[in-house]
Amino acid sequence: MNASGYFNSPWPCEDAGPARMQSPHHVAGLNLQKNERLACTTRHTWMSTMTVLGDPGEVYLMHHSALRAKWGQATTACIELIDPISLKTQCKSPRLAGGPMWPGGMAVHRNGSLLAVYGRYAHKLNRQCKLLASKKLPVNQAYNSFVILDNGFLVTKNLSNVHAAHLSVLNPDTLEIACPEIVCPEPSVARLSAAGNSVYVVGVRSIFRYVWDQSLNTLVQDLDWKFEYLKGSPNSYGWDVVLDGRDAWFMDNGAHRYQINMVHAGVKPTANRLIRVSLTNSQDHQAWPICGLPGGSITNPPLIDIQRSIVMGYDSANRHLQAWRFERDNLNLKALWQKSDFGCASHMLLFSDTAELCVNDYRRFQEQVVVLNIETGEEKARVKSGGLMQGVVFPSVGWNRDFYWSSMGRLARIHVN
Q1: pLDDT tens, 233-258?
Q2: Coarse DSSP helix, strand, coil percentages of the chain, rounded to the nearest 5 percent
Q3: Which pTM value belongs to this model?
């Protein structure tokens, strides 16, 4: 699905696009053969969040400080242009103002600039990481990244499970506020998703959307599309939503006690669920338990393989990964394969052309990155990333049969050996 607000690269932003399909554009898969293995190049970082790609050979890394937040002090972020092979810094931004700590986000806009949101600030940089403009955002809370609409505007939101979500729309050239702030009907923890000029918000109780009204020059809530996914459920809030063109998919029971990993970090005693909502009719919805085990929890989105009609869900707290085949006509799910005792928690990466699914597997204070066949669950290769924490952030593809894995204090380049 095209997202015309972004730069034309294989991976211009987190999850490769605002629909969060987690699959690259116009780049071939690893195509691992039986005689090939994975190798890993790593480097220490501050709290690394993500890598994104610009022109061929350009790889940008975003990381941020964290320890200061424990004493209530302001934190900062940094963006680097790194060598795509060695991961060494080629140039980097100054420390970017942030304030409240939470992993932010960055993207390459179609105008060629780097845009970033971290803490309560938005920043614009050139491709040599020189800071061009900054904007302090209205709410004194951390904003958890942003989406870019097809009209080019940047939309961002504060993160809270108590205070109402506020949507801010920014001009990408100046970072000035493009329309009055929109106050949502409830708080929201999940990151925003978007399709075209529509923004999807997973609130702490329901999912709803806003559509850009060109005549009014603002976002307007679509009052005909809303689903209260926690109505009648004891579960906690949902995380990021995937938009596959026909349905919205996300998982709930998102409250957890993550410190260095998600294992047994669930807060609610119930099982977490996979939830589907039709994009044309919000009354058309379904929910399925991931594995049915108590104390289920996640902190990220599912993954949808449109080409093969496969949906991937997981329960990070109970170390369970589940694949289903779905039927478009009646949208029943058929269990395809599963992996128990499998420590997946991060955003995923799908090479759709080669059916290769890249996930993390946390084992005994050690993060490993695994490539699976998404149709069969067959393990094609795995490698240690060097991380001691279980990553819950963002991978990206690379330029040459490789991909990058961010796992908090470590960045790894995973490549075919």
Answers
A1: 999 999 999 999 999 999 999 999 99
A2: 5, 45, 50
A3: 0.97
